[in-house]
Each structure stands twice: as structure tokens, then as C-alpha cells.
Predict the structure.
Amino acid sequence: MVPSRSLPGHDEPIDLTQLLQAAAGGDQRAWDAVVERFKGLLWAVARAHRLADADAADVVQITWLRLVEHLPRIREPAAVGAWLATTARREALRALRRAGRETLPGDGLDREPDDRPRSGPEAAVLAADRDRLLWESLERLTQRCRMLLRVLMADPAPSYAEVGAALDMPVGSIGPTRRRCLELMRRELAQVGISAGTGGSI
């Protein structure tokens, strides 16, 4: 199903095809809506490759520039999310090659930004400690699991087609791999005293 969004000043939802057509025609609100829909996915792809902040920002910006270049020629608007994910993955790999590395352990990317409101200093300390344990547990997983779970945590949630494009994975393998990775994650969390539900929220 093609995602739909409402533009400011519009009561009717506008589907992705209309958004892309409007953006190609110079409608800034349409472009902003497209960016809002996919920015979480692009940042998740960049972070999944453990890029430094500046490199990740470059990957996201270059990916948006590629979309701008292709806007007038898009034939399958419903597939634009997967195209963006593929483009971001390729740009991330280019950035890694330029830096001469595959990954850089301990580069601080296990600490995700958190702008959620806090109810007080005690809550902030507890939440920060929990978040630290969560990200440390994630970092102990295999690279495949780390990358998959990071991309799946994008907001809004990406489709499996977008995830597959972002990680060069067959769509049919995403669900089983996700389940295995979540089970590994639950075991890691249990070792540090955090109980995770069996359903998983990712």
C-alpha cells in the first residue's frame, strides 16, 4: 500500500505519488513531507554502518541530493523508499571506503540521541542507565543483527522492502533474522538484569 500523508493546509491525505509529483514541481511543503517520511530511514541506514556523525550527515544529504536529481524521472513512486535506502547504503559504503575501514569500534555511535522529556533527575539517571545497557547489549550482537535492528528502529517504521534495500537482504529473510536477533538481544538484556517482553517492539 502506498503511504499517504497530509500536507499542512490540506485536509485530504496525499499519497506518495502526489507528494513526489508536487515536490518535482517545486512544492516545498510536498518536499518537506517526503523528507519527514523517510529521514528516519536514512539516518538509521547511516548509523547502522557506524559512521561518524559528520559522515552520516553527509550520507543523508547526498542521498537527498540524488533524489532531487531523479525526482522528474521517478516511474515507481511506491518504490522510492527502497531506492532511498539502497542509495543511502551505497553512499555509506563509499564513506567507509574513503575512511579506509569497515567499522570503527568504540566510535561513540552506540549512544543514540534521546530527546524524550524527563520527569526529574532520578528518572533521567535511571533512563540513561537503562539506555546505556540497551545500547551496550546491542553492540555485543553480530554486525548483521546490529545493522538490522538499527534500521528496523527507524521512525517511521520502514517497510521490509526498504529494510532489504538498506541492508542488501532478501525480504523473505528479514522476519526470521529479526526474530533470531531479538532473541539474542533478550538474552543479552537478561544478563544485565533487564527483562524484555517476548513480543518485541522492533
